[in-house]
Amino acid sequence: MTAVRPTHQPDGGGPHPPRLRPPAHQVSPRAIAHWAIEALLLWGVAFGLAWGVAAWTDDADWTGVPRWLLDGIWWLPVLTGAAGLIMVFVAPVWRFRVHRWEVSADVVYTRTGWFSREWLLVPVSRIQTVDTRQGWIERLLGLATIEVNTASHTGSSEVSGLPAATAVRLAEDLAHRAHDLRDDAT
Predict the structure, then answer these.
(1) Quick check: helix, strand or coil at residue 17?
(2) How many CA atoms does the CB half-sphere of 138 hold within 13 Å?
(3) Which of 2, 35, 46, 64 has a CA positioned 20 to 30 A from the CA of residue 143?
């Protein structure tokens, strides 16, 4: 067995950990639609509220509010709509490119995030429960999410955007492997 030794930075700084390779599997391409629909629903409500606030404020004759704020209130729904468009059309594609997963003989490895990335390796021997869930949008798209739970909150992992059959098969396989490892340890 060879030990992994930290490499040193060229500027003379301290050691940094070895680079992790991306997990082997991407989530389903239908996950893009799932995340886009969720964002559309959320940002649609936010846009409606922003529009309502702007209309209500524009009709009100308030004396204690600065005039510049009242004059610029219609920027609120415009900015909310622009942010919503980015979250509906850009974020799901970006998220799809990043979200990956892999299950080896001894570890569940996931990578998530889009602005900040999280690599999570969960040892199969530490798994306590494996849950599968499907929201109504996931059900419409034939997707599911598995949640791998350990005794440690930071050790728990979630893989969303999996085809439903893959999620069920993966959850069953992980539950059996974790059970067998616990039985072997006693």
Answers:
(1) coil
(2) 18
(3) 46
Longest dimension (CA), the chain: 76
| Short-list 34, 29, 39, CA closest to 86 | 39
Structure tokens at 39: 């964002």
Instruction: Give the N- to C-terminal CA distance of the chain in Å, as an integer.
Output: 26
Residue with tokens 């990335």: 117
Measured CA to CA in angstroms, residue 126 lies from 168, 175, 179, 181 at distances of: 20, 11, 10, 9
Q: In this structure, what DSSP letter does residue 11 have?
A: T
Task: Compute the distance between CA of residue 171 and CA of residue 103 in angstroms, rounded to an integer.
Answer: 11
26-48, pLDDT tens digit by residue?
999 999 999 999 999 999 999 99
For residues 147 and 90, what is the distance between their CA atoms, to the nearest angstrom? 26
- Across all residues in the chain, what is the average pLDDT? 86
Give residue for tokens 């006693």.
186
